[in-house]
Amino acid sequence: MKNAMGIITLHEKNGGLNELTHHRPVAAIPFLGRFRLIDFPLSNMTNSGITNVGVFIQEKPRPLTEHLGKGKWWELDGKKDGLFIFYPYYNSVNSMYTTEMKNFKENLDYVKTSSQEYVIITSSYMLCNINYKEALNYHISSDSDITIMYKNVDNAKTEFLGCDTIEINSKGRIQAIDTNRGEENNRTISMETYIMRKQLFIDIVEQSEKISVMYSLKETINFNCKYLKIRGYEYKGYLVCINDTVSYYKHSMEQLDIKNRKELFNPESPIYTLVRDNAPAFYGREAIIKNSLVANGSVIEGTVENSIISRGVKIEKGAVVKNSILMSRCTVEKGVYLDCIVSDKNTRFTRVKEICGSKEHPIVFEKNSVL
Fold it and tell me: Which domain holds residue 341?
């Protein structure tokens, strides 16, 4: 797919992920012990043969730039094209205008000078394993101006809340983009993935200020529904949205089921991530491990059940961790009992001996907490 470039836009709402985004953008949130959310769209692009990818960051770039590096693990560190990271030009006087479209416009030379004819734009919090080739071929054959990828779901009252929905008429044209407010089960959920000619993207960005300086890309596309031929491409595979701590916990824990894990982690299209050469996980003689994902570099001497343990975590003898997610370098000392919690990096559980949340409302601890 040498005729398409990729753009991952990180101007995403993070209000529901506050505890996990104080120190990082949504795209840099750890997932399943060793991945970050951005690994999924980035790997999808790499597996689709896209060799030119731009990541447009809104804020807090350091954790993400450290993870991405020069794109080596996604084979995007070649001499031609590769991985490019862009930041908005903050203006202390007009800081309200550091919008998604403003970021695109300030870095539009990157798009203009690329050699590809088409652009595929996506976000980081929609997780799936997809090859974009069929969607691009559909876009070209349908002679559409813009193609929006979508999935029909029957659980919209409880899932994909706050996500975009699309309305498609009998001729297959998209009439409007709306929001899922949980009013109906059957909805057409936008994957926030847009395919269009590069020149049309340039035109939309350059003309966006005439519509509204505060509009996002999807709002600008929605405005143009009556002027452009916008069609949908249906995706039927596994799809989840991580837009609050409840969905983060739920969809992380779903991956303990091997059936779900096989849908998201297809060996024919692997998900790549930064490789760290840690030692293998160490299990003490009295350690008890049941139905859990444990990353390398961890030391487990206590009990772990139905949990996700990241790199460098230490669980001491006599400690119990159930139905929980512990990110890198957390420590659970002797006598501590944890159930249904999400703990960010470097958290230490020592003085408080029992912390229990629920699967519907897990307790979330920020990075570097001491309890």
Answer: 282-365
